[in-house]
Automatic annotation (TrEMBL):
<feature type="binding site">
    <location>
        <begin position="19"/>
        <end position="21"/>
    </location>
    <ligand>
        <name>substrate</name>
    </ligand>
</feature>
<feature type="binding site">
    <location>
        <position position="150"/>
    </location>
    <ligand>
        <name>substrate</name>
    </ligand>
</feature>
<dbReference type="InterPro" id="IPR015824">
    <property type="entry name" value="Phosphoglycerate_kinase_N"/>
</dbReference>
<protein>
    <recommendedName>
        <fullName>Phosphoglycerate kinase</fullName>
        <ecNumber>2.7.2.3</ecNumber>
    </recommendedName>
</protein>
<comment type="similarity">
    <text>Belongs to the phosphoglycerate kinase family.</text>
</comment>
<comment type="pathway">
    <text>Carbohydrate degradation; glycolysis; pyruvate from D-glyceraldehyde 3-phosphate: step 2/5.</text>
</comment>
<feature type="binding site">
    <location>
        <position position="35"/>
    </location>
    <ligand>
        <name>substrate</name>
    </ligand>
</feature>
<feature type="binding site">
    <location>
        <begin position="58"/>
        <end position="61"/>
    </location>
    <ligand>
        <name>substrate</name>
    </ligand>
</feature>
<keyword id="KW-0418">Kinase</keyword>
<dbReference type="GO" id="GO:0043531">
    <property type="term" value="F:ADP binding"/>
</dbReference>
<dbReference type="InterPro" id="IPR001576">
    <property type="entry name" value="Phosphoglycerate_kinase"/>
</dbReference>
<feature type="binding site">
    <location>
        <position position="324"/>
    </location>
    <ligand>
        <name>ATP</name>
    </ligand>
</feature>
<keyword id="KW-0547">Nucleotide-binding</keyword>
<dbReference type="GO" id="GO:0005524">
    <property type="term" value="F:ATP binding"/>
</dbReference>
<dbReference type="Pfam" id="PF00162">
    <property type="entry name" value="PGK"/>
</dbReference>
<feature type="binding site">
    <location>
        <begin position="353"/>
        <end position="356"/>
    </location>
    <ligand>
        <name>ATP</name>
    </ligand>
</feature>
<comment type="subunit">
    <text>Monomer.</text>
</comment>
Length: 396
């Protein structure tokens, strides 16, 4: 793997694509900085070598050019704190200001460019735009694992302008190495825990995992499509009616492959999608009309936890319930505790990005699992066996 360990950045300007697409609250405070802290080792190595750093990223999905809400200037104070030095900011990612500021950077200094997606050329993978960006640095480093599944100007197209000077950052290398431990050579028993809102987002991954795992646990909103497929009453729970046949075929496939497929036995149900709702516990398939399942029930949590605790490799993607609300986080927390226990007993545990990572962070358990990925969609696509454009661009 071509990583930044292979060169010295002394006297060079490194143009680093990072994924600082972090959640911000209404006052522009960063509510989860995992993606920023994860990029620090790469930045620090380059500065220590005697290089200068130019960071580029997207934030959100702006549709109409420059928008206050999506400005990366909001992350400058926190990034400066994390690095222990003032980070410069360019109000545009290309153009005169960016060029001048990049050129004037001294050894050990850091410049952050404004949101790349203020130009529609970024998502289009425009070659001319990529070329303009490429002029800002001597060496291109891709450390944006979270965006590696996008063939955008800054994540993939730009690499052609650095045929001899393109490298993976440490975060990218760590993400790929950890994903590899799951994909190839997972110690058994191997358990995958799938949750979250929709089956449709995870079909390909589930199919791929059926080839590899011993146990497949399905919880969260997606479990109700399976419950419905089995003919039960699910009340007003989340369901994808057009995926019922698919759910049945996945159950059959699991049987054919000898995979132990575990679905919820009971559920915490509520009479409204609210933390103030009345709650009860119902067996799967026996949810009252007008009530909805918002978490796995206690019997299920105990069953899932037992299987997880006995595992040697664990992949977890998607919460077991609506963990954002206090009343419905118990199931997700029980699973997090089981994963932590297994990890303590020597298992390798990888937490997929997005909401499962947010849940583990909320429970303050990030250090109790083996690895929390910064990738949401990127990790899913990598696990599905797809070649990520951001990875391919450095490798070829
Ligand atoms: N029973 C349920 N009913 C409704 N929503 C649910 C239920 N269980 C979980 N959810 C919601 O599903 C959401 C997470 O689903 P998603 O598919 O996005 O998960 P993820 O894969 O972890 O996240 P990401 O896609 O960001 O990587 C959470 O906001 C959670 O509240
Ligand atoms: O949050 C993510 O998954 C990445 O930053 C990619 O963002 P995108 O889905 O808007 O391309």
């Amino acid at each position: 793997m071509k990583t930044i360990d292979q060169i010295s950045f002394n006297g060079k300007r490194a143009l680093i694509r990072v994924d600082f697409n972090v959640p911000l609250d209404e006052n522009y405070n960063i509510t989860d900085d995992n993606r920023m802290t994860a990029a620090l080792p790469t930045i620090k190595k380059i500065l220590k070598d005697g290089g200068a750093v130019i960071l580029m990223s997207h934030l959100g999905r702006p549709k109409d050019g420059p928008t206050e809400k999506y400005s990366l200037k909001h992350v400058v104070p926190h990034l400066s704190d994390l690095l222990g030095q003032q980070v410069e900011f360019a109000n545009d990612c290309i153009g005169e200001e960016a060029v001048t500021k990049a050129k004037e950077l001294e050894k050990g200094e850091v410049l952050l460019l404004e949101n790349l997606r203020f130009y529609k050329e970024e998502e289009k993978g425009d070659v001319g735009f990529a070329e303009k960006l490429s002029k800002l640095g001597d060496i291109y480093v891709n450390d944006a694992f979270g965006t590696a599944h996008r063939a955008h100007a800054s994540t993939a197209i730009i690499a052609q302008f650095f045929p001899e000077a393109k490298f993976f950052g440490y975060l990218m290398a760590a993400e790929l190495n950890n994903a590899e431990k799951i994909l190839n050579g997972a110690a058994k028993p191997f358990t995958a825990i799938m949750g979250g809102s929709k089956v449709s987002d995870k079909i390909l991954l589930i199919e791929k995992l059926l080839e590899k795992v011993d146990n497949l646990i399905i919880g969260g909103g997606m479990a109700y499509t399976f419950a419905k497929a089995n003919g039960g009453n699910i009340g007003t729970s989340l369901v994808e009616l057009d995926k019922i046949d698919l759910a049945l075929s996945l159950v059959q496939k699991a049987k054919d492959k000898g995979v132990n497929l575990l679905l919820p036995l009971d559920n915490v149900i509520a009479d409204a999608f609210s933390n103030d709702a009345n709650t009860d516990v119902a067996k799967t398939g026996e949810i009252k009309d007008d009530w909805m399942g918002l978490d796995i029930g206690p019997e299920t949590a105990a069953l899932f936890s037992k299987v997880v605790e006995e595992s040697k490799t664990i992949l977890w993607n998607g919460p077991m319930g609506v963990f954002e609300m206090e009343k419905f986080l118990v199931g997700t927390k029980a699973i997090a505790e089981a994963v932590a226990k297994a990890t303590d007993n020597g298992a390798f545990s990888l937490i997929g990005g997005g909401d499962s990572a947010a849940a583990v962070a909320k429970f303050d358990m990030v250090d109790d699992v083996s690895y929390v990925s910064t990738g949401g969609g990127a990790l899913l696509e990598y696990m599905e066996g797809k070649e990520l454009p951001g990875v391919k661009a450095i490798n070829e």
